[in-house]
Each structure stands twice: as structure tokens, then as C-alpha cells.
Amino acid sequence: MLNVNNLTKKAGNGEILKNLSFIAKRSEITAVIGPSGSGKTTLLRCLAQLTPISSGNVQFSGQDLKELSHGEIGLVFQNFHLFPHLTILENLILAPTSHGIQKEIAVQKAHQVLKQFSLGGKEKRFPSEISGGQKQRVAIARALMLDPPLILFDEPTSALDPEMVKEVGEIISSLQDSKRVIILVTHEVRLAQRIASRVLFLDHGILLDNVESAEFFSTDSTKLSKRAQRFLSNLS
Amino acid sequence: MLHFTDILPSIPFILAGVGVTLKFTILSLLCGLPLGIGLALCKISHFLILKKIADAYTSIFRGTPLLVQLSLIFFATPQLIGYPISAFEAGVIAFSLNSAAYSSEIIRAGIGAIDKGQWDAAKVLGIPYKVTLWKIILPQALRNILPALVNEMVNLLKESALVSIIGETDLLRRAQVVASEKFLYFEPLLIAALLYFLMVMIISFFAKKLEKKLNHA
């Protein structure tokens, strides 16, 4: 499991994340919800080690997160960030082959993952030649190539058409596995309701709520912070 | 008034200069571009010393006339290290060093224009810095800056006429030789100008085609 202790991230004079502590379990999807500017993406960037944390520590299965190599954490971006000059297949095998995995084995794995995501036959296409939903599926497939035990999703559906949201949601849901910790940052509240087991509500860098998904979305949510209640009522 | 027929026998002599000029341009490009990439990588590097050296290099080569650089290399080399440098060698060295300074700025800007998300994506995937640079960033950057690089190649081609001053028999020099032999200036120089223009047009034509092909991919 992922164990976050007193994580603080400073930028300039302010604190973007203030003393966050939470646990994310394997075989669960932990959703992080909150208004724009609440620090959700910064939290993911800290967990993915794209930006250093200012204080506190993060442990994964008892190991400090810094000791994990980059390939062991998968991050799926809002804007996919596929490599536009490479084909879908090349996008998938670049990381494994640069880690010394034989090309044939990487290609075989890529075919298998693409098939799993109904992307078979798209291997030779370029990212510009496929739809947004397909791009995000390729991005997820690319993140899975190294079998990371920790997968982070940064608003994976907000650049997609509404009908694609469900599809990508189903894929994320299908990744739940006793070996994986999945963290989903989203402001697509319905998506979180459908697939998350736990919900963390973040506002102005403070973790206000950390509850089971059913509790967060129950009609009688008086146990939640005022902020979360207002956030939810603004949506309905 | 005009005596094109008089210089007709000398036209093959002038035409041979096209090859010399192209040789200068292509060789200087082949040496200058890798050096430019190297300088650009120094400029984006985290090592302050490399950055300062690359910046200083660029300032010096862009801040002094190419003709002065060429003259220095040609006339000062024998004095300094006793090597009797040929006009050809001096030309290629001067143009390579000079165009590296210009193309390094183009390449640096091209790398800077690549979406930061590309770096992030490579980093989370654990792709090593070298692979990220050569397989992800540079291919995209080079595609974006191709028009600017072609422009640099055209500049190089035109500036190569400067070697005529240190005695290399390039296109311009040959036109001047014919001019002084026949006491006719307008005709041979006009032919030289026309040939330069044709070369530039041909390069631009192929560059446009290449650009279209790359944009399609």
C-alpha cells in the first residue's frame, strides 16, 4: 500500500499541499476530488516524483518512494502526452527497450496490451491519426508496459468527449488488482462515484475528507466537511 | 552593348564553380550542424560551465563579421602554428564554426518549444535522459525548426562567396576571373548571380517538399 505521511509541498512563500496524510490500498481505486487549484495535480506530480516534496515522506510497501525507480510508477496524463512522431507501437516499446528488455518481448507485450484495450490493428498508426479516447487508451497501455505497482491518473477523462469518459472509466476499473495501487485525480464526480472505493476531498491543499466512496456520495453526507458538501451540492 | 556571346566559351569554367560552392556549403553544414546540436545541448544543460562556454562561443561568432573570422583563420593559422592552411580548409572551418553558432540558437529554441509534458512522460516512464533527448525531443525539435535550418543553409551558400577573397576558385571567383580576362563585368557576374539564385531556389523547393512530408507523418 501507499502510505503518505505529512506531505507538504511549498512553492514560493505559499504551501500548495499542507501536511497530507493518507493511505491508499492495493486492489482499490482511491479518488482524489476537489475544486480547481486545490492541489490535486501537484499531489500526483509529487507522488510521480516529477517534483520534489518539501517535507514529509511517502512509502510504498514499506519502501521510501524515492527508492523506487521511475518506471515503477505509472502516470497517465490529462493530455495523454503521447510521443507524436512515433507510432502507437513505438510509443509502447520505447520505455521497455530503453530499460534493456528485448525488443521482441516488448513488442509481444505491446500487442497483448493493445488487444486488451481493443486497439489491435492500430500499431502502425500515429497518435494524430486516432481519436481522443483511443489516445488515452494508448497512454494507459503505455503506462502498463512496465507493470508498475502504483498507477496514477491525472484527470484522465477531462480532455475527452462525454461518451469516451465511460469507456476510459471502465478500463481504469478493470485495472484493479491485488498487486496495484491506483490513484485517480478527477473532477468528474460521477466517474469517481462509479469506480472509486475511497474518496479524498482536497481543498486549498488541505485534505478535508477521507472516506469510503459510498459515504462520500450518500444523500445524507452530513459527516463530510462543509466544503465538500458545498462542492457536491454545486454539482447537482 | 551586351556581349554574352563573347563569354560563351567561358561558361563551363564558371559552371564548374557551382560544384565548388556546393562542396563548401555541404561540408560546412555537415560539420556545423553536429557542432550546433552539441552547443544547443550545452545551452540546455544543468552544468553552468558548459552553458557559459556555449553562450560565449555563440556571442563571439555572431558578434564578429564572418569575413574577419575567415581572414583570421586563413592568415593567422600559418603564423600561429606553422601549418600552411589552404583556402578550402580555412573556408570550411570558418563557415562550420560560424554556422554552428547560428544553428545552435535555432536548435535551442526548437528544443525549448517542445511541450514540457513530453519530458514528463519520458521521466515517469523511466526513459534515460540520453534516450529522451535523441529519440523523443530532438526528432520533434528538428522537424519544427527545419524551415529555419534550411534558411541557415541558404545563408551559408550565399556567404560561401566570401572564400573568393582568400583565393578559392568558387563560383564568384570564376566569374571575376572571366570578367578580368574579357574586360566584361556585367555578363559573367550576372551569370554567377543567376546560378546562386537557382541553387537557392532548388534548395527551397526540396525543403518545402520535405516539410510537407514530415508534417504529414
Describe, in plain words, how this protein is organized in 3D.
The complex is a heterodimer of chains A (236) and B (217). With 236 residues, chain A is of the alpha/beta class. In chain A, strand 7, helix 5 and strand 8 form a beta-alpha-beta unit. In chain A, helix 2 packs across helix 3 and helix 2 packs parallel to helix 4. Chain A is globular, with a radius of gyration of 18 Å. The two termini of chain A are 33 Å apart. In chain A, 42% of the residues are buried. Chain B is mainly α and 217 residues long. Chain B has a single domain, classed as MetI-like fold (Orthogonal Bundle). Chain B has 9 helices and no strands. Chain B is flat and about 70 Å long. Chains A and B meet through strand 6 and helix 2 of A and helix 6 and helix 7 of B.
Layout of secondary structure:
The complex is a heterodimer of chains A (236) and B (217).
Chain A: E1 2-11, E2 14-24, E3 28-33, H1 40-47, E4 55-60, E5 63-64, E6 73-76, H2 88-98, H3 103-116, H4 132-144, E7 150-154, H5 162-174, E8 181-185, H6 189-195, E9 198-203, E10 206-212, H7 213-216, H8 226-235
Parallel strand pairs in A: 3-8, 3-9, 6-7, 7-8
Antiparallel strand pairs in A: 1-2, 1-4, 4-5, 9-10
Chain B: H1 4-7, H2 11-43, H3 48-63, H4 66-81, H5 87-112, H6 116-124, H7 129-159, H8 171-182, H9 186-216
Helix pairs in contact in B: 2-3, 2-5, 2-8, 2-9, 3-5, 4-5, 5-7, 6-7, 7-9, 8-9
